[in-house]
Structures are given as structure tokens and as C-alpha cells.
Design a protein that fits this description.
Strand content: under 5%
Largest sheet: none
Distance between the termini: 41 Å
Number of strands: 0
Number of helices: 14
Length: 371
């Protein structure tokens, strides 16, 4: 469910600690990612390296999306989801892969599913069901992680969490566009094909990965065809920026789908790296960059005025990912290191721009008006 973006007066201080926990996970996850690609940096903890993916997906993205879902639902108990996933990340960093840390993430995802089911009870639509299925996929992946399954065995469940959450939100907003009658059915079929592939990958990994890639491609084509971004990209200011983020992110989603279909079962190596980062960096972070100026005001109740400099971070994100994937394709470790490093810089740059924009907006709001 998309959170309303009209902020009330005053910072929502109660949500700041939850967001801070997500921020800790983001910094630790980025640091671990840089270590994994071979950058020579201090190693604060082995857990930073081994839990890179979990920190980024479960403890950062899961926490942030959990806050958004709790705000949309409006019930205090729903905030237990981001609290548990955030505390899980801290526990992981302190203790490594512990039953307590992973268990906290599992518990948080289960609360998230409960919140999603409550939203369906309030508004039973295709998009709320799809987003709830994304939450269920996340919980399944977390349980598999808790059971000790390797990350390459469960990462498609985490992919499903983010893909279905984002696709569901885009379906909700696409109601503003006129669509042919078959469009909703096509959306459901694409999501169904993707989920069948994810489930099949547990027993028949190669077939399941290829099926999920086919579903991802089908969903990408649907989003390109029916997303309202096709209209808003013709506007100016923030609407155009958001549309550019979305449409460019769909390009990387298509790339990820092609890599899954063509390579099938992947457990490591350049193709595995390219497929995962095309999705998580190219697609997911493009969505984050695009939605942050809308979601942050709704969650924290602070205005984030649009700034043209938002494009700088977005361009750096895409350029760095292109360098990384080219490095994967031609097996050039230096390019992979450079691309991964610049991607981390792009994320931090974007956060700095958002903070600066929010600060400038707050100063303008407090300035005395003439007359």
C-alpha cells in the first residue's frame, strides 16, 4: 500500500530510531559488499562480510519497508516488524550468524506478513494480495536462512519479496491509466509464473531459476507497458525524476531476468554477481531513489523538496553498475571493484542530497514570511 505523501507538522521522532537501525544495516552492508569485491578495508567483524546480503535485504530494506507498511496500516503493533529486523541486524553484527539474530529477522518478517494480511482485510485488491505474497516470500526465505540453507538457495525468495512489493505498488498507481481488460490478468499470470519458478527452485534449481527469470521478464514488459511513469516522464521536476528512476530501473530488471533465463542455476561467479546486482542495485535502488522524496515525508513528516542534483546520484548508480557488470562479463576484477565502489558512493551521495534537501526545506518552512 502506498503511503500518503502529505506530511503532518513536526518530525515523527518515534520512527527515527527504527530508521537509524536500518541505516546501521545499510552502512554495514555496504562495507561488507566492498570487502567482498576485494577492496582493502578494515574488517570490523567477519559477520559484516558473511552477512552482506542479509544486512542489505532483511535488515535495511526489510526495516525500511516495514516502517512504511506500519505507517500505512496505522497500528502500533505493526512497528514490531521493523524493530525486530533492525535489532536482528545489530545482533548479527555483534554475534555473527546467531540463532537470536536470524530469529529476530524471522520474527520481524512474520509480523510484517500479519500487517500485510490486516491490510488485505481492510482493502482486498490484487495489489494488496501481491504485496502480501511478497511478504510471505520474504518470511519463507528467512526461515530457510534460519535453517542454515546457503544464500544462493534462498536468495530468490528475497528477490520475490522486493519484486512483488514494488510491482504491487506500481499496480496500485497504474490505476490512473486506462488499461485493456486483459492487463490485470496478464499481471497476475506474470507474478504467478515468477512465484512458481521461485518455489520450484527449492527442488529443481535450474528449472526454477529459469522459470522465475521468465516471470521476471514478463513482469518487466507489463511494467514498461502499463506503468503511469510512461506519462509522468513527460512532465517536469519531481514527477519526471521519479519516472526516470522507474523506467531505468526496469531496464536493469530486464537484464536480471535475461541472466536468470540464460544461465539457470547459479551459485557463484561473474554471472551470479551480475544477475543479483542488476536486480538489487539496478532495479531496487532505482526504486528507492525514485520513491524516497515521496516516502520520507510520509514516514518522517519532513519535506524533501525536489533538487536536480538527484539525477547526479542516479546517473552514478547506473554508470557504476554498468562498469561492474561489464567487469563480470569480461572477467575484469578491477572493473568489478571500481563499479562496486562507485555504487556505494552513489548510495551515500543520494542520502547526502536527500538530507541536504530536507534541511533546506525545513529552513524555508521556518523562515518568517514577509508581511
Amino acid at each position: 500500500m502506498v503511503v500518503q505523501s502529505t506530511p503532518k507538522q513536526g518530525l515523527a521522532w518515534g520512527r527515527v530510531p527504527l530508521l537509524a537501525l536500518g541505516g546501521v544495516a545499510l552502512v554495514a552492508g555496504l562495507w561488507g559488499g566492498l570487502l567482498r569485491i576485494g577492496l582493502e578495508l578494515p574488517v570490523p567483524s567477519a559477520a559484516v562480510v558473511s552477512n552482506h546480503g542479509a544486512l542489505m535485504v532483511c535488515s535495511f530494506l526489510g526495516t525500511v519497508i516495514g516502517i512504511e507498511r506500519a505507517v500505512a496500516l496505522g497500528h502500533r503493533w505493526a512497528y514490531a516488524a521493523p524493530l525486530l529486523t533492525g535489532l536482528g541486524s545489530v545482533t548479527l553484527l555483534v554475534t555473527g550468524h546467531s540463532v537470536v539474530g536470524v530469529g529476530a529477522v524471522v520474527a520481524g518478517s512474520l509480523v510484517f506478513v500479519a500487517a500485510s494480511v490486516r491490510i488485505i482485510a481492510r482493502q482486498s485488491t490484487t495489489f494488496t494480495v501481491v504485496m502480501a505474497l511478497g511478504g510471505v516470500a520474504w518470511a519463507v526465505g528467512n526461515v530457510l536462512w534460519w535453517m542454515g540453507r546457503p544464500i544462493f538457495d534462498l536468495v530468490l525468495w528475497w528477490v520475490a519479496f522486493l519484486l512483488l512489493t514494488i510491482a504491487g505498488e506500481r499496480l496500485e498507481l497504474s490505476r490512473l491509466m486506462r488499461r485493456p481488460r486483459w492487463a490485470n490478468a496478464a499481471f497476475v499470470v506474470a507474478c504467478g509464473l515468477f512465484l512458481v519458478g521461485v518455489a520450484a527452485s527449492v527442488w529443481w534449481r535450474d528449472v526454477g531459476v529459469r522459470l522465475s527469470g521468465a516471470g521476471m521478464l514478463a513482469l518487466t514488459l507489463w511494467l514498461f507497458r502499463h506503468d503511469v511513469a510512461r506519462r509522468t516522464v513527460r512532465l517536469d521536476g519531481l514527477p519526471r525524476y521519479v519516472a526516470v528512476c522507474l523506467l531505468s530501473g526496469y531496464v536493469w530488471l530486464f537484464v536480471a531476468g535475461v541472466l536468470l533465463v540464460t544461465h539457470g542455476s547459479l551459485t557463484a561467479g561473474p554471472a551470479y554477481d551480475a544477475a543479483l546486482h542488476a536486480f538489487f542495485v539496478g532495479f531496487v535502488f532505482s526504486m528507492i531513489f525514485g520513491h524516497a522524496p515521496i516516502i520520507v515525508p510520509a514516514v518522517l513528516r519532513v519535506a524533501v523538496p525536489y533538487r536536480p542534483s538527484f539525477y547526479l546520484a542516479l546517473a552514478l548508480l547506473h554508470a557504476s553498475l554498468l562498469v561492474r557488470i561489464v567487469g563480470d562479463v569480461i572477467v575484469l576484477p578491477g572493473a568489478r571493484i571500481a563499479g562496486g565502489t562507485l555504487s556505494a558512493v552513489a548510495v551515500l551521495l543520494f542520502i547526502a542530497i536527500v538530507v541536504r534537501s530536507a534541511r533546506a526545506g525545513d529552513l524555508r518552512r521556518r523562515a518568517p514570511h514577509p508581511g
